[in-house]
Amino acid sequence: MKLILKQDVENLGKAGEVIQVKPGYGRNFLLPQGLAYEASAANIRRLEEEQRLSEERARRDYLEARRRASQLEGMRLEFHARAGEGEGAKLFGSVTGADIAARANESGLDFEVDRRMVILEDALKALGDFTIPVRLHPEVEVEIGVSVLRDES
C-alpha cells in the first residue's frame, strides 16, 4: 500500500515522503492515527506542488536573509554602562541579546532584529570590544561589533 506521510514517523520516514507499507499497517494504524494519507495520483500531484512552493519560499527566505545581512555587515554598536574600577572591570549589570537587538533596530534598518537572532551564550558583563553573531536564517549568519564602554556620568 502506498501512502504519503503527514508527519515524521520513527523508523518509517519523514513528512511528505511517499512510502510503501503493508496494507494492514496502513489501514489499521497510519490512516486512523492521521499520520498518513493515500498516495493517489491527485495527492501525489498536490504533494509535488507543495514541495515546489516550499522550495521557492525557502529560496526567497534565503535571499531576503542575505539582503538583510548586507545591512548588518560592518555594524558597530556602543553601549555605555557603569562599571567597577580597573582594566577589564565588571559591569554593574549586563548587556543582553535583547539590548543588542533593540540598539540595532534603532540604527535605521528596514527590518526588525529579534533578540532570538542574536547568538549570545551569556550576557556581556565586562568592558571591552566583542564580536557577536546574528543568525538571520539557518544558512546566513553575520557578525556585528559591540563595544561596552564605561559610563562617565
Written overview of the protein:
With 153 residues, this protein is an alpha+beta fold. It has 2 domains: 2-66, Ribosomal protein L9, N-terminal domain (Ribosomal Protein L9, domain 1, 3-Layer(aba) Sandwich), CATH 3.40.5.10; 69-150, Roll (Ribosomal Protein L9, domain 2), CATH 3.10.430. The chain is 32% helix and 30% strand. It has 3 helices and 8 strands; from the N terminus they run E-E-H-E-H-E-E-H-E-E-E. The protein has helices at residues 23-30, 41-72, 97-105, and strands spanning 2-5, 18-20, 36-38, 76-81, 90-95, 124-126, 128-137, 140-150. It has a 3-stranded antiparallel sheet, with helices on one face. It has a 3-stranded mixed sheet with strand order 4-8-7. It has a two-stranded antiparallel ribbon with strand order 5-6.
Secondary structure: elements and pairs:
Layout: E1 2-5, E2 18-20, H1 23-30, E3 36-38, H2 41-72, E4 76-81, E5 90-95, H3 97-105, E6 124-126, E7 128-137, E8 140-150
Parallel strand pairs: 4-8
Antiparallel strand pairs: 1-2, 1-3, 5-6, 7-8
